[in-house]
Hints:
It contains 3 helices and 3 strands. It is an alpha/beta fold. The protein has one domain. It has a 3-stranded parallel beta sheet with strand order 1-2-3. The radius of gyration is 11 Å and the shape is globular. It starts with 9 loop residues before the first strand and ends with a helix. The relative contact order is 0.19.
Amino acid sequence: MLDIAPEQGLVFEDSPSGIRCAVGAGILTIGIASTHNPLVLAAGAFNVDPDFTDEQVWNLLRGS
């Protein structure tokens, strides 16, 4: 629907199955550990952060 390549996307996901799907599709995936253990989400995610207020999330979006 967005007409972009997977490499152009960014996924924020809080479930292991969602992370597996996004990574399998070739999309850069950030795990948000709001409901799951960060170690569970780390399997495949580019990075895992506790929530959307984490500075690492904002640095990534800013390109820092």
